[in-house]
UniProtKB/TrEMBL annotation:
GO terms for biological process: response to oxidative stress. InterPro entries: KH_dom-like_a/b, OsmC/Ohr_fam, OsmC/Ohrsf, OsmC_Ohr_Peroxiredoxin, Peroxiredoxin_OsmC. This is Osmotically inducible protein OsmC. Pfam families: OsmC. It comes from Saccharopolyspora gloriosae. One of its GO terms (molecular function) is peroxidase activity. It comes from the Bacteria.
Length: 143
């Protein structure tokens, strides 16, 4: 398997500083970040939490697709959103929860088969595993 990497260049203090995240492995672009955008209006900037949400929603969708395909139900479409919540924890901030919402069109799959695969994907997707110390909820439904 391949390693993936990104780089952040930060200037200034936490409150007024800002940075640029570069997706090095894929050369997919650069994204501005600042601390203010984590708790306020993002105004065209991203945050670590949004990047985690992107990673989680895409990883989960791929894992669910593999699991459903493995039992003979190739999905036609899977739409997954991940809402990552940043909150106060002790003396600082922490990711306090992630809510996955999944809507899928899976021809031939019954509700039980889909729910079993959806739950298994939540437990086995590599990003879910990496975030195992965080409460992750799942709302998965067939479209």
């Amino acid at each position: 398997m391949a390693d993936r990497n990104a780089t952040t260049s930060w200037t200034g203090d936490l409150g007024s500083g800002s940075g640029i995240v570069t997706l090095d492995s894929s050369n997919a672009g650069q994204f501005p970040v600042s601390f203010a955008t984590r708790a306020e209006d993002p105004a065209g900037q991203t945050s670590p939490e949004e990047l985690i949400a992107a990673a989680h929603s895409s990883c989960y969708s791929m894992q669910l697709s593999a699991l459903l395909g493995g039992v003979g139900h190739a999905p036609e479409r899977i739409d997954t959103s991940a809402e990552v919540t940043l909150g106060k924890s002790g003396d600082g901030f922490a990711i306090t929860g992630i809510a996955l919402t999944v809507r899928a069109n899976v021809p031939g799959a019954d509700a039980d088969t889909f729910q079993q695969a959806a739950q298994q994907a939540k437990e086995t997707c590599p990003v879910s595993a990496a975030l195992s110390g965080t409460t992750i909820t799942l709302d998965a439904q067939l479209a």
